[in-house]
Amino acid sequence: MMKFLPIFLLTFLFFGLPMAPLANAATQTATVELSAQDITTALKSYQKQLDTLKQQVSKASTDSQLTKLFEATQSLSAGAEKLAADLQPAQEKLQAQLDVLGPPPEAGGMAETASVVQQRNTLNNTKKQLDDAVKRSQAIRTGALDLGQQINDLRRVAFKSQLALNTGSILSTQFWSPKADPQSEEQVRFNEFSQQLQEIWQGSWQEEWRYGTLVLIIVAIAIWSLGRYLVESFLAWLCIRYFPDGRLRRSFMALATALITLFGTTFALSLVESAFSRAQPFPPQVQDFAEGVMRLGIFCALIAGLGRAFLSLNRPSWRLAPLNDAIASGMRFFSPLLAMLALAFGSVELVNNVIGASLGTTILGNGLVAALMAMVLLAIPLRARHIRRQLERQEAHIEKRSTLEGIVHILIMLSAVVILFSLLIGYISFARFLTYQLIWIALVLMAFYFLVLFATDLCAAVFSPHTASGRALKKSLNVRDRHLEQLTIIFTAIAKCSLLLLMIVALISGSFGTTTPNTLLQKIITILSGEGLKSLHIVPGKLLDAVICLVIGSYILRVTRRWLSHELLPKTISDIGIRASLITLFTNVGYVLLILITLATLGIQWNNLAWIVSALSVGIGFGLQEIVKNFISGLILLTERPVKVGDMIGIGGVEGDVRRINVRATEIQLSDRSTMIVPNSQLISQNVRNATMGNAQGVVTIALTFPIDIDPELVRDILLNAYRDYESILETPAPYVRFSQLGPEGIILSVTGYVASPRLVGSTKSDLLFNILRLLREQQVNLSSPQEVVFMKHREKKLADEEEHSS
Questions:
Q1: Whole-angstrom Cα distance, residue 499 to residue 71?
Q2: Do both 264 and 360 map to the same domain?
Q3: String of DSSP letters for 301-334
Q4: Which residues does the UniProt record annotate as the domain DUF3772 (predicted)?
């Protein structure tokens, strides 16, 4: 590495001094040699650390060791990145000096002096060596990041394997042995950590820091208790005074209650940490413990805050959920109890992680927290059921329990029973994992519930024509109430889809590798941050994840399709055929995307789907070509829409209404209410008559035969008046009468009028015939009967025979 010494000598030389001949620069070598040597030593140290970490990772066997190694890789990566960033200005400086010297002169040009040539060569060599040093630093950083990713993979694999281990029942002596016979090394580490905490406590209560510590603790307690109450009261007053009437007040107050509890606890814990860190900085172990307690406290505050917001005991009339007051009052202690249990046992786990507790001690803590939390979870539905039965015996008015509420209670009871059973048979880690997963899922669903209700109520209030904001939008944008309603639907859908996507990501992110409540909170922060979403890679390898993805995707498609067909499209598009085509096209594309996403969730890479394409090509050649042809034809019908739902078409001598365009065939309802199934390819390849395409009008034509001795003008007026008086006949184009034929049978007159739709032709023609016959009888105008026509034909034939005979 000593070969890099000239690089840093020249780098710092040119940084600190203007360009000068090398003879003058050599006098400054001694002033920068130490800094250059430090950087060279840093590169050596980084490479050595990386090699050492790789060796330690291959020998690591516990999760705590892997965690510390991962933190070391992050620190190494940050150091290498900083070194590369520090060297970048030197590169720019060298490049600027080379630009001043300019390129070498071309052959035949003016020759340069030897000192300039030497200086350019030196700068080029120095810049090349400096670039190599930067590349080496970046390579070390990349290697550290890759090693960190490998450590995470190892932790995930170790966690999955740990779930399948049987560590002994909680009733066995092996489970309680760490408490009865603690290991000496572990006790020493615990005593050292306790000594550090005691020193920090004593230092914070020294005379010069005593009053400041006391004030900060009092302020923290006041903010956590009285401050939360005052802020909630102020927001409630604000809602009553300024918010419009409706559900927005309740949803806002519920969300605000949870957030006030969360942020109040966060601020109070920050003040407490500041109170004890003022006297002296925390040692590394205490600092890790303090950060963990901060995250754990926020997590517990989230449990308590969502529980308070859901029950809404201070304002029962503002409660969002249809929950009886007696049941809500009986459930008031469960969320604080869960929060306290999570705080207590989470703190114990933090201590175990900091001191590197043994496996037996860790299993003991996991079993205790899983058992106590499972019993609390089991008591929740049992308590609600007991209160409901008491109310029923007292014949009090109580709402019937919904199906969703019953499903939630059953799932909680089953999960609690599974957790307790797992503890009895010895699967401690699985029981603890399931406990925190159940709490995590409940928190995510409750947060999603409050956020969706608030987003829906907010959009409804903002775009309502009865609120100040809605009236302002209506006036400024010059829109109607119908357009405001459409904006409400669109923005509500955007908010719900965004929250639903966030919920899915949160649930899946918390479903693997989550072992402590503080890591759950880290995932919340990671999900809510832009960098977290950018770096999140969800590649689960389990079939269960794929099934969950398929179920959730199917539900989203059904809900979105119902929303499109019942809410958005009826208020934006009046044509029922276009609406049906858009819904069908959305459904087909959605299911295709859902299948692809499910395959990706299973871990099937896109480049591994070549065999599927090959199999499909063979299948198409041997029998699937008709199905594929009809499917493609269906997509053409849905996009080009030569035939859409609601059209009256004729194909193959049959006429009927298009009722549905499926993936393979189209359903046509005939006049007798029967349905004809026509493959989509026939609608593309054959001649199809679309009677209603392009707002086509119906033509009603009636031809009548009259005797020769009638008054044609009188009959024409009768026919025109009959058409003009009928309400379905359009004024434009106006009806008209044509003298079709004058023959031996009589006079044939045809009258024609137009109606709004070809569907009205049959009924209109029938009504007009009844009316025309009535008017003709009133005017004593007769039609040519079939007997008269036959008689005239025989008479003409007889006259023709007589003329022929006489001739």
A1: 32
A2: yes
A3: HHHHHHHHHHH--S-GGG-SS---HHHHHHTTTH
A4: 135-195
Asked whether residue 663 is domain-assigned, the answer is: yes
Q: Are 510 and 504 in contact (CB under 8 A)?
A: no
Are 668 and 747 within one domain? no
Residue range 666-686: mean pLDDT, rounded: 82
In this structure, is residue 458 part of a structural domain?
yes
Facing residues of 665 across strands?
Answer: 679
| Torsions phi, psi for 401 (to 5 deg) | -70, 135
Convert the pLDDT of each residue in 731-752 to its tens digit.
888 888 888 777 767 788 888 9
Chosen domain end from 639, 661, 696: 696
Angle between helices 543-563 and 576-601 (to 10 degrees): 170
- Do 718 and 775 meet the contact criterion of CB atoms below 8 Å apart? yes
Same domain, 661 and 750: no
Find where tokens 């034809």 sit. 633
Distance CA 566, CA 472 (A): 28
Residue 111: half-sphere exposure toward Cβ, Cα within 13 Å:
3
CATH code of the domain covering residue 756: 3.30.70.100
Q: Is residue 381 one of the residues assigned to a domain?
A: yes
- The contacts of residue 223 (CB under 8 Å, 6+ apart) are 264, 267, 268, 271
Q: Which residues contact 250 (CB under 8 A, 6 or more apart)?
A: 318, 319, 320, 457
Cα separation, 560 vs 566, whole angstroms: 10
Expressed as residue numbers, the domain containing 11 is 2-163
Angle between helices 428-462 and 468-477 (to 10 degrees): 60
* Whether residue 83 is found in the same domain as residue 198: no
Asked whether the beta carbons of 117 and 101 are under 8 A apart, the reply is no
Same domain, 271 and 192: yes
Percent of the chain with pLDDT over 70: 77
Q: Do 747 and 764 fall within a single domain?
A: yes
Cα–Cα distance measured from residue 10 to residue 14, given in angstroms and rounded to the nearest whole number = 6
Decide which of 46 and 579 is more confident: 46
Judgement on whether residues 543 and 596 belong to the same structural domain of the protein: yes
Residue 342 near residue 376, CB atoms below 8 Å = no
CATH number of the CATH domain containing 84: 1.20.58
Q: Outline where DSSP puts E strands in 36-114.
A: none
Give per-residue pLDDT as tens, 211-234.
888 998 999 999 988 888 899 889
Residue listed under structure tokens 């900083």: 82
Q: How many CB atoms lie within 10 A of CB 477?
A: 11
Q: Which residues touch 26 (CB under 8 Å, ≥6 apart)?
A: none
**Per the structure, how many domains does the chain have?**
5
- Out of 163, 189, 205, a domain closes at 163
In a domain, 802, yes or no: no
Residue 615 and residue 477 share a domain: no
Q: Which two tokens stand for residue 326?
A: 């007696």
CB 265, CB 343: distance < 8 Å = no
Give 743's strand partners.
746
Q: How far apart are CA 12 and CA 29, in angstroms?
A: 9
Instruction: Decide: residue 208, CB within 10 A, 0-12 exposed, 13-18 middle, 19+ buried.
Output: exposed
Q: How far apart are CA 643 and CA 690, in angstroms?
A: 7
Average pLDDT, the chain: 76
